[in-house]
Design brief:
The protein has 123 residues and is mainly alpha-helical. The protein has one domain. The chain is built from 4 helices and 2 strands, in the order H-H-H-E-E-H. It has a two-stranded antiparallel ribbon. Helix 2 runs antiparallel to helix 4. The longest helix has 27 residues.
């Protein structure tokens, strides 16, 4: 795409965005930030991202909706109950501990990649 077509497309989009503001007027609010609100440190933001990644890859949304048991049990040939870590015969199902174990491994892999990149650029 050449520059003239890009400028024409940008001008058309700017015109489209200006149309609602011809009718509507933005209020002039003078909001002040509370004094206790401050910019979080990079480490805090990184920790929140890692924790949210852990929970999302662990299937927290699935666990809240479906409410599966933490671990399963299966009866062996002698009639004894044995704990089962992985949900058998269901492709889209999981136990809570199964999700957390896989999430732990995903997170450790990601943290290993990040630490490798940090050491690569710190040399």
């Amino acid at each position: 795409m050449n520059k003239s077509k890009f400028r024409a497309a940008a001008t058309n989009m700017e015109t489209l965005y200006r149309v609602p503001f011809l009718v509507l007027e933005c209020p002039n609010l003078k909001l002040k930030k509370p004094p206790w609100v401050h910019m979080p440190s990079a480490t805090t933001v990184y920790a929140l991202v890692v924790v949210s990644y852990f929970l999302i890859t662990g299937g927290i949304i699935y666990d809240v909706i479906v409410e599966p048991p933490s671990v399963g049990s299966m009866t062996d040939e002698h009639g004894h109950q044995r704990p089962v870590a992985f949900l058998a015969y269901r492709v889209n199902g999981q136990y809570i501990m199964e999700g957390l174990a896989s999430s732990f491994l995903f997170t450790m892999g990601g943290l290993g990649s990040v630490s490798y990149i940090i050491t690569l650029f710190s040399v």
